[in-house]
Protein: Tetracyclin repressor-like C-terminal group 31 domain-containing protein
Amino acid sequence: MTTAKRSPDRPDRLVLIGDTAIRLLVERGMRGLTHRAVDEAAGLPAGSTSYYARTRVALLEVALARMTVLEAGEFAPALAAGDLPPALPGDVEGVADMAATIVSEAIREGRAQKIARYELALEATRRPELRGMYDGAGVAFREAAVAMVAALGSPEPARHGRFLVAWCEGVMFDAIAGAGWATPPSRADIRTGIAELLTGMLGDTARRPRPKSPNE
Amino acid sequence: MTTAKRSPDRPDRLVLIGDTAIRLLVERGMRGLTHRAVDEAAGLPAGSTSYYARTRVALLEVALARMTVLEAGEFAPALAAGDLPPALPGDVEGVADMAATIVSEAIREGRAQKIARYELALEATRRPELRGMYDGAGVAFREAAVAMVAALGSPEPARHGRFLVAWCEGVMFDAIAGAGWATPPSRADIRTGIAELLTGMLGDTARRPRPKSPNE
DNA sequence: GCCGATTCTCTACGGCTGTAGTGGATCGAA
DNA sequence: TTCGATCCACTACAGCCGTAGAGAATCGGC
Structure:
């Protein structure tokens, strides 16, 4: 009942502040994100951001909360459509194809959002208040990965899901903020890479109990 | 001849400033790295950092240069000892073992340094001056990875080397700054994961030319 | 022992930062 | 319509920031 009533036509100020904070984080980094800069960039009256987010950590929380919503919105269609987990025990290619789409788009259209996310991840390293919010944000995505590798027949879905996500994160970081920024991998390369990773995970223990060398 | 002569006993001020800047980057983030903070944290007379690094970007360059030296020092023993590339065409386990050691140590003892590196990578996103220096820093490491997978028999060493490094980076980021910070993977898990990735890479194209589905 | 050049210390300055408080505008209930 | 409460715009303030320059200290050649 404290913040329940708002006129529905006005795009909630906190959303605007959150979006602008994310934009500043991307364009100017953590040093460029200030209360006054948000006011200016968002075209808000001076002091507005300082009112809605009284302290700096509150401002970071607004940005992180907004980013959580944005990221959830990205995966919502795929998750809601029941596409994952694909549930076909051997469909490595299908999973690789879908994951490659996500990663490839994250590198290109989603580049800015990823930079903001990295910035907040680093900040969460030093601010316990942000840690919980950050960790909670990607939990649905990570659980989907675990469910997916489990459906593929992984004998260790927890570890395999975690490493699958880590592979994707590493490719994204390299392409967005790392040395690979100038030559981001093609969607096809990513797809092949994920397929190789999955094949290695499933082939070693699931399909072949132990014999390490191929049969010929 | 401009900066050639220095009394050899004094630990070069720039090294001390660089080390301290890295420490501040880890402990307080980009907003905590300031000329005055370095002076104070390093016990230098007020204004020293501002003299050695006249501008802010100069200070970041000092930190990045120092980090490049530190990281080179870590891999120097292994590289100098001729351990890599191991050069045995099928020695997946050996390579996985060595890489797992590097990653596992980076997560634990090297955690702080990695945080500083991420911080600078993000900054390089916005500062072209830092970009070249950052990209050049890890080039030896990445080339070693390419040489290694080539020695293992990879038909696409460039792509495979890149993705191997990306996998490692992803695992490290997750364990250091991501949601996996509370439960970092064990060295054994990392070793297994790398072995799976390499098996998938080499098995799919090298050992079997084309037939995509298993033969049964 | 002297002196010019280099190396360093210290201080100044305009500008930006986080945060809090004050007073006016707006809204819903009576 | 009146009035209390909420929402918001604006201002104040103490402190820290990057950067530049003036002068002291130190060093090496003579």
Q: What stands out?
A: The two ends of chain A are 71 Å apart (CA to CA). Residues 13-207 of chain A form a domain with the Tetracycline Repressor; domain 2 fold (CATH 1.10.357.10).
